[in-house]
Amino acid sequence: MNIIKYCCFILLPCLMIIESPAQKKSKPVSIIFDSDIGPDYDDVGAITLLHAFADQGEAKILATVACNKYPNAAAVLSVFNTYFKRPDLPIGVPKGDAANMSDEQHWSDSIVARYQHNIHSNDNAEDAVEVYRKILSQQPDNSVTIVTVGFLTNLANLMKSHPDEYSQLDGVKLIKQKVKRLVSMAGKFPEGKEFNVEIDSAASQIVFGKWPTEVIFSGFEIGEKIKTGLPLVQNNAIQNSPTKDVFRIALPMAEEDKNGRSSWDETAVLVAVKGYEPWYSVEAGSIVVNEDGSNSWD
Fold first, then answer.
1. pLDDT at position 16, please?
2. Where are the alpha helices (DSSP H) in the chain?
């Protein structure tokens, strides 16, 4: 299924340019963060980066939602939102059919046990689609950037949603009115099979076939070569950090992570908040998602 041509872009590496400190600051980017926050721990780097941008006044976090319904999903989001002094951020989880994939390294158990959080189970969190509809209905038109670093389950369900107490618009019309762009860590380009697209391939086909706004893909090949976490783990001055704890626990568990974990999700957050320049250029086109979760690029 194809998305509208020239509304869809993939990131391509380009020459790094140092940003001038004197450059005029722009208005904070309004962000809804959608994450599988479990199977991999680059999501932890991504939510940490997002909160750092918010601390600097470059991002305004509207909500954090999970597209994965394993038992610690809502609690882990609450840990990070609370640690970064935003304990009241809306948190949503899928209440219907969705992936249920926990972290193999068991870092989520560790930080949920150690750090304060307001939401202790998925039962205490709102439905992800309800969070989306409520938050979007309250925002100015064409103002919200959605960054998704997990499966497309929530976004497909949002597209299929009906008018409700929050908006008289159906899901697609609500997105078209309120969302400026979608930035997605998804796909492998020019072709291949990538985890986030594959896990809920039916949802991926719906979203990337009919999404009504601009989409920027940060593909597998973008974040793969950028390593995160080792300097943090080795920094003895940083104590009592859930981010450090996660990377400290998880990095030693895989030989390929000895120099740091690949930064798939962090690159999507970077582009969602800061834009793709000067780090990347973009290529316009359309994505084709197959039933088995593989994709190609036109």
1. 40
2. 42-55, 73-83, 107-114, 128-137, 153-159, 171-178, 195-199, 201-210, 220-223, 230-234, 242-250, 264-274
